[in-house]
Amino acid sequence: MRTLVIVVASCLLCLCSCQNISCPLENTVALRVALYSGDEPVTFGDTLSVTATGTDSVLLNRLYRFSTFELPMRATTEAAACDTLILRWALAAGEMESALPTRLTDTLYVQHAGRIHFETIDCPAAVFHTLSTISSTHTLIDSVAVTSTSVDYETTENLRLYLRPRP
User: Fold this and answer.
1) Number of CB atoms found within 10 A of residue 134's CB
2) CA 50/CA 63 separation, integer angstroms
3) Would you state the pLDDT for residue 56?
4) Most CB within 10 Å of its CB: which of 32, 46, 77, 159?
């Protein structure tokens, strides 16, 4: 009986002394992009690959049948950093006029300012971003709209890519 009391008291003491670490479970900072045609979200039935200039990294490799995607941003605290993203669209045969190639390339220019976000010593630091200027080439992308300038842990849409109508 005395051993049981000591064990229970020890367990309660351990439980009371434990500290709850409140690091967010969803701690990925990513640019969230949605595809639109007119005012309606659209599912792109073909393939998209994304790379960034200045690196040999593939950010998105052959994503297929999608309406949204996420891209990491350069972890910098510069006041006016610019990520240049190369979007390579691979279209299925017969979906475009014969005069157009089946592989199209667009470039997306994302200007942003980064700021370090620190919660506790137990959690890793992150770089949040504020979008400033977005522009693109107009091969398959008709226009780009910013829906939220804050790129952080939240899963809100940041950009809308309006695609050109396909015949």
Assistant:
1) 19
2) 9
3) 85
4) 159
